[in-house]
Amino acid sequence: MATTITMPQLGETVTEGTVAQWLKSIGDSVEKYEDFVEVSTDKVNAGVPSPVTGTIRELLVKEGETVATGTPIAIIEEVGAASAAEAAAPAARTETAAASAPASATAPSPNGAAAATAASPAVRRLAREHHVDVRTVKGSGSNGRVTADDVLAAARTSVAAPPATAPPPIPPPGRTSTYAQPARGTLIALTQARRIIAERMVESRHTAPHAWSMVQIDVTDVWNWRVREKDRFERETGHKLTLLPFFIRAVVESLDAFPLMNAKFVPAAGSSPAAIYVNEAVNIGIAIGLPTNLVVPVIKNADQLSVRGIAIAAGGLIEKARKGKLGVDELAGGTFTVNNNGANGSWASAPIINGGQAGIVTMEAVIKKLVVRDDDSIAIRRMMNSCLSLDHRVVDGYVASGFLAELKRRLEAMGPQGEL
Amino acid sequence: MAVVSSNSTVMNNVEAVRATLYEAMKNDDRTLVLGEDVGARGNVFLITKDFITEFGPERVIDTPIAEASIVGIAVGMAMEGLRPIAEIQFADFIYPSFNQIVGEAAKIRYRSNGEYTCPLVIRTPYGGGVRGALSHSVSVEALFYHVPGLKIVAPSFPADVKGLLNAAIDDPDPVLFLEHKKTYRLIKGEVPNGHYTIPLGKANVLKDGKQLSVVSYGLYVHWALEAALGLEQEGMSVEVIDLRSIRPMDKTTILRSVEKTRKLLIIHEDNKFGGIGAEISAMVAEEALFHLDAPIRRLCGPDVPAMGYALPLEEEFMSSPAEMAEAMREMVKF
Questions:
Q1: B131 — contact with chain A (CB < 8 Å)?
Q2: I need a surface site. Which of A119, A394, B169, B171 has the fewest CB within 10 A?
Q3: B26-79 confidence digits (pLDDT tens)
Q4: ipTM metric
Q5: Domains and CATH numbers, chain A
Q6: Which is the catalytic residue, given B136, B180, B222, B268?
């Protein structure tokens, strides 16, 4: 029996998808739930799992081709449960295939026995540190277990392997190689992600009247808190502890005090007049700049998380973003956005609001400054600007300034005596 | 004893104990030995043979069969400025003195707010594999391991016996000095001449390795080393650490090794439950979890009341180098 696979709809507003890469060729066998194609849409690269076990009969769309959702992209010749085990057997896994044959449909693990797939603490840590996906590593341990050495070997090969299309660019002085280096005088075709970013930015800038405000925040104490906790935190969780989670915690507390900042403008449609919708959930998008792209994964219900919880959630999202592994769910549902622009040295910026939100706030560079304090003493303090762009249809400067002042007050109150 | 150079002498462990005690008695009038049969008999292993003739019955004291008194008297001597080296003839007989060791000696410094210390050494032969049966085979280290204020040493090599026994005698606080009786005549090695000490609480990496850390002490150090050297032929690289001091425990050496090899096997003759290996496992789990690439494993004596006399029972109790090699192999391949 042949099953026709169509371009899936990856996300509510997505209407088309590009076949980024076929993971299987014609004639290859594919197991149920096994990814057989990688599809890229707006900001997401997602593997698409096969709904059936069978053999690839036809691939109807070329790599790089964009088609509307619902368009047939492949035909898979389905095989019965009995012959499924047979098809898997020749592939060097005779032992496990035989063992799992009676259970047939239970998703077989690529590494053999279930116990062997449990990554040891060292494997987990090394995989995190070297950005290696353990599931893609071939194990050399007993029962095919992935060992720490396997992870290190995988990390070495992935570093050593040159990009498929071009030799690694030589970073010019004073810059890092993460900046794209396009050839001069050339016309660059937009990637799908770039095109959508362009469209959304224009739309937001044209529909939401932006206003802008900035506060200066003394982050010395919270910085010291971070320094005190960061080694232990990294040892315990494998994530770096930056200023971001502290800032996000202060943001969600401030949003709680100013719910109108966690709202969106709903334009008039048909007979319904324009309105402002005050969001129930507090979902914080984090803008993450990548060499050719910008993604904004979302920490859902960030107001329910401690600094520690936010740090772990953000760390996971940032890591996935860098590897292009963010799922659709992780990019949807943001109600307010935080942009850590200071990481690149910026001192002030005027961000564009993420469409459908009331504001976006930035963390600028933390800079040591001479500060005259309230008691007229002079001190060296770590200072950080925070910039807010707001949708003037939703809030006025009065609310926005109140929100910023609240944010400043809360962040300045955080210090080493706190609990993560 | 054979002199191989002017700088060192080859001796076995029992000769090393004897030589060290002799030098201590010779060099420091405050030193004295007391215990069952240490005088006229010269100790059951002849460690103090002829001491009584040379140093006299006031410094070489034959005591009644009363271990509580042996340690209790020694505690008083130590508090008043002498350097007693008490002997419990076999570790199996140490229980009557438990209160004197745990309740008194270990607490003197704390209880007197530092006014008194208790520079006492308690030597005792321990361990099995010698057809010693129920009352001449026991390992007692775990019973005393829990007690703050007490140091415990268990050397494996003659040179360590001398350096650590000297350090124990010099130490201002009580030290339980455990001598594995199977190593007494089995293990020979060069011992530097002259006085030297080896710091208490320092482990010794006997063999470097990359794939597995093995921590042991006492007799089993030798067998673990033999097993690890054998595995070299199979292309496996196993690191062997001789703890030497059981308490203080050398955390740094253990952690450094585990962070390198990512796997830890602890081998000891004493039974597993609540043993030294349990403490090492907990320490490594607390401080180096994210370096571990395999579950920590302990190869230990069985949890039975005593070592049987019958040879098959004794052999069942003791781990052989072959068993150790198999455990190492499994862990390297894991």
A1: no
A2: B171
A3: 999 999 999 999 999 999 999 999 999 999 999 999 999 999 999 999 999 999
A4: 0.76
A5: 1-108 (2.40.50.100), 110-164 (4.10.320.10), 193-413 (3.30.559.10)
A6: B136
